[in-house]
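Cross-posting from the modeling subforum.

Setting up a comparison between two proteins and wanted a second pair of eyes on the formatting. Protein 1 (sequence, then structure tokens):
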Amino acid sequence: MSQRIPRNLIYADAIVDYRGVLASPGAIFIEGETLVDAGTPEAIGSIEGVSVTQINGVVTPSFVNTHSHLDLSGVGNEPPRDSFIDWLFEVIKPIRLDADGIQEAVHKGIDLSLKGGCRIVGDIAGTQLAAEIVESSDLLSVSFVELFGLGEKQEAAIETLQLIPETFEVSPHAPYSCGKELYQASFRSGKKVATHLSESLSEIEYAKFQTGEFDAALKLLGAWDETIEPWGGHPIDALLAVADGVPFLAAHVNYIEEHHLQMLADSNITVAYCPRASEYFGHCEHRYISMLDAGVRVSLGTDSLLCLDTPDRISVIDDLRYLYKRDHTDPLQLLTMGTVNGAVGLGLHPNLVTLDPGETAGLLVFESLGGDPITDIMKSDKMPDWVF
């Protein structure tokens, strides 16, 4: 005897996705894991054999966090260090060396992501174990196994790349920690690729001149060898040349030159802008609006819990609200960044985070403040609850 598929009919004060208010009041009909229809109650009509839920609030799809480090969730907010190098070696390195702590941190990060209304997460996994934990969770995740390798150490990193299971993707860490051969192998692997790119001025100095704090750190750690080739230019120019048309997910992209706008748009990469992380590290004003105007796909990420001011959740909802208050950014543009742009950037179907028919990543309900439903989402300081 076949198992009966659950059928749910949800009524709400309003239903909203990246296109705006689709109906107010609104109704959503779901069968199993599939969103069948959404619209006004009159358009949906009467449906027999359904479980009916009446909601006082605004219903939206799940949000998408395109850049997170869930294995760094074991420690709360850390104060900034004097330099990015100090941050990497005083904060990140000790955490990544604690294998038992990583497992606990990943489980915590999963829980905090769901509390933050983000069922879809692009996670940079410092170990394959971290990726496996995320994969077995309730998140709809895309796990990028992180690799490091410069000079002669690239060969070992490429061997590791070849052993990464098909279910996981790859993340060569950054141009200051990975060489051209490792990046080329990653782009040719057939896997989705994510990387940190143009995150700091020190990265740009290293890529252009092979000088500065990254160069000094490599030599201090004994990681320098004579086979390390200089990039010889801005990391965006250099990496797009190596990618040779392969789209990828670029985290941060805090520092760009004017000609990069069209290059980024033409390359079909997705930028994962992490507003609160950029603020935490004191980076320059991000050019995400100029990127969007040029046709660049910009999504939102949180980076790690270490640089967030919300210890009880990991959520890009906080980031889009931050941008709304700081920059007065168009709310629909922010919803697009926080949903469909992120899904596409992770290689997923955008319908997962819209109210169009098809499989859904879940539905959230935000409190209604009695005003415009989208403005209410931006102005509220409360997290939504999962309704489906």
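Protein 2 (same layout):
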Amino acid sequence: MKSPVYQEISDLILKMGRITFAQFMQICLYSPRGGFYSSEQTNINKHFMTSPTSHPVFGALIARQLEQMWHILEEPPIFHVIEVGSAGGTLAQSIVRSCYRMNPMFSEALCYIAIDYQPCRAQLPSPFNDLGLWVDDEIYPYHKDIGPEIHRVKANGLQAFQNVVGCILYNELIDNFPVHRFAIRNGKIQEVFVTLSGSDLTEVLDEPSSPLIPQRINNLGLSLTEGYRSEINLAIEDWTAQLSKTLRSGFVLTIDYGDTASELYSPQNNQGTLVCYNQHTPISDPYQHVGEQDITCQVDFTSLMETGNQYGLTTVGYTKQNKFLESLGFYSLLDTLQTLALSTARTELNRIAMMTLVDSHEYGDFKVLAQAKDIDVEFDLLGFRDHPK
């Protein structure tokens, strides 16, 4: 039996004749009729893990960076942190708890807003308890009536927020923006459209649906050979405009997998980077499990930086996640494990989980981009300093 999401896609194709891959991806992930991220039935932890759900130290180290940002902004009485795509709230909880024990004055100024399609996912149990990981409460008691509150908001963007002083952050968000797929055929840029062959979803190539597609590709200055296929994320510009409109003064922190355009569109990636995940299994075919699997692409950080410059968001840091976390004191926290009242087994389990955050074969090769707006003082962000191991 076909899913409601498949039926929505099929109905649209029958009406339009074909749809762009971006339209297909938008419906699959965000349709109110049961898209992967909009469905209350989706437990993301059953499909893939992320840095925040791997170990709470990830949030603790980001808290250190946020505290420095607060100081750079001359310690405003209200420092907003807006996390977009907060899912189950794991990162939010790790950050606010760390801020509370790290600096009570900063914690008092912190106003943490967690935005997601389904904020009720905050009721999901912590992934750390079942895994036997170091949970902050065991070492640093935390009481909800003392520490900062997490304000959960159901939204699909930043339109409701303005004049923010602080930091907008997101982890693994941009990779889920709907993308247009393209191919080089007969030396020309062709767009991949989705249509029907009987009851099966299939692809056809034709002239691009928007002049922005060849314009963006040509602006990258790349030499793409016959048969080359990849993706282009046109949603980046609208998103950057939202960021700039929302942020009066402060920072944007983007954490995701991806690379610069020259690496992302290299000959080695001649079939693109799009991949799907269903119950921790990578799948190359996006037309399977429609609405029931994640669809994701690596992020073009060159476009993020260049578009940011157009909207007043200046790049002030770009590095790999492992370097970012190491500069914030990752290895000192790793050493702390030996001083905690944990069993040998739990100490080792924590060590393994923490190391996934900096392992290049796990999350360590993710990229971290910091952008700033309307900050008059000179500064050097902690996470982008070159600290030796």
